[in-house]
Design goal:
seven-stranded antiparallel sheet; four-stranded antiparallel sheet; mainly beta; globular
Length: 148
């Protein structure tokens, strides 16, 4: 199974975390604010600069961001519960160096991606609940891959 990168034009300055999509929107918390990125139209990001580091909208203990009448469960610096296996029994795992791999049910590598981790603070890779996307989060980058 191949995975196609979805490009977006944003670098989130010192991202603290990101969420699994809710209603096809990903929440991102960075030092500069909260950002809501529509996964199907990633160029239409909505920024909330008044919520630097999540502001009052982010509960660090529960790792939840409450915004736009939604509660986003965050993955990233403060902890994570990524989805590392899909309903089709694929498995996500970080490889050596700066890479992650997707393995099929038989353990064969079916996809690999190398990335540039500029900080080494934290990294999370996850499937989305519908298994249609892979999200890779690092302090300076969010990469999105769509199943072909």
């Amino acid at each position: 199974m191949n995975w196609q990168p979805i490009k977006h034009g944003y670098i989130f300055e010192r991202m603290i975390g990101f969420s699994l999509p809710i209603a096809e929107k990903i929440a991102i918390i960075s030092y500069e604010g909260v950002h809501i990125l529509p996964i199907t139209n990633p160029d239409a990001v909505v920024h909330y600069p008044e919520l630097a580091e999540g502001g009052d909208a982010y509960d660090w203990q529960q790792q939840q961001l409450k915004i736009d009448d939604r509660i986003f469960h965050m993955l990233g610096l403060h902890g994570s519960a990524p989805l590392l296996s899909s309903s089709t029994k694929e498995i996500l795992a970080f490889g050596k160096d700066d890479s992650f791999n997707v393995q099929d049910a038989a353990g064969r590598k079916v996809f690999s991606h190398t990335f540039n981790d500029m900080s080494g603070d934290w990294r999370v890779v996850t499937f989305t609940p519908d298994d249609n996307y892979i999200l890779l989060g690092l302090p300076y980058e969010l990469e999105i891959f769509k199943r072909r």
